[in-house]
Here is the input.
Amino acid sequence: MYYTIKTLGCKVNQIDSLRLAESLEEIGLAEAPPGERAALCVVNTCSVTARTDTQCRQMIRRLVRDHPGARVVVTGCYAETNPEAIRSIPGVDRVMANGEKRQARRIWDGILSNHPERVAQPLAPQSTQALPREQTGGIRGRRRAFVQVQDGCDAFCAYCIVPYGRGPLNSEDPDRVVQQVKTLVARGVAEIVLSGIHLGAYGLDRREANGLARLLRRLVRIPGEWRIRLSSVEPKEVDDELIALVTGEEKICSHLHIPLQSGDTEILRRMGRPYSREEYAALVCRLRERSDTMAIGTDLIAGLPGESERSFESSCQWLPTLPLTHFHVFPFSPRSGTTAAEMGDQVSPALCKARAARLRAIGGRLQTNFVRRMTGRVLRVVPISDPAAAGTPLKVLSENYLEGFISDPPSPSRGIFTAKVSRTEGVRILLRPQS
Ligand code: SF4
Here is the structure.
């Protein structure tokens, strides 16, 4: 009996999908090979923009069409924020709230109980227990794994639908995180990405100050050839302790993703972001002083209501002066229920798109310059393609988030190893083993 899962959106959603897949495999379902009809289709939706909502609806309709007779379950942020829109799509059997993902096995039991294939071929016994997070390896044969340590956000930035879809802060117990990481390291994982919706707030809901730094201090004591990468951390949460850890601990990748969102302080204020552009610049310059190879990525939104030509132009002049290395750019899209959707001075979708393209071009130039600067450097890399695939260059990821290839990797090359950047091609690095 086959399942298929389609996922849109952020890393946390990707991890949730891995967890859902694991819970389905535990009860005896297998992932549908290409062209095979699935008995259960799951769509894990995202609602970051209106376009994403449309993509989610299209994906659901496609699955309903391509898998006749399948049970269809829809979950994720779009299902959470607009369940009626999902229920109205013919063929959808169940809307699963984000909070129900942990009880997924009970839901599979209910939804599949009268499926003809299940009657003919009973599944493995059901457990009524919630899915423990230890089962969330996210590894499935790869050298990298994602560990979600936190869910939810209560910052309510003006443009963001996430707090409505994901609920308030909810941090995982640190002992369980440590245990999960130990298990993954013992299984041979070389890089663990710690992720969360609002990672820098880890521990706050458990009344723990500096929760993320404290967790990292425990994790780096786990022995072995492995490393940690942090997903996004908000500017105000990159404090001295976190900077010391990221720039001083070998087990923590030299990489931070610090969402800026706008290069104009007045727009930041409208967004409800608690910092000025000068404060942001001071932070990233400080990081660059501590490490000239660190990757510093950011998120930007183009066209928040009230973003005038002048303020956008001023952002475009200022951004290249920052030591940033890559941008994720989103054109603003009003999300119903958020403050920004009700603001005056909306920027037209066409202009949002054009501004986003210009920001991406600026980000592209910063990224290329950064990558070029890495020529001749020795970096610690992990394989991200199959090391066993003989005759093909091994695809690797560096500590400072650069993808590249090495044609004669050291053997065995399953974990972390050092290599020298011999040259660069666009945003890719080409490496040779470091003797
Ligand atoms: S910090 Fe702001 S942008 Fe990030 S998830 Fe929370 S509300 Fe959304």
User: Anything to note?
Assistant: The pocket of iron/sulfur cluster is lined by residues 153, 155-157, 160, 162-163, 197-198, 234 (CB under 6 Å). The first strand starts at residue 2 and ends at 7.
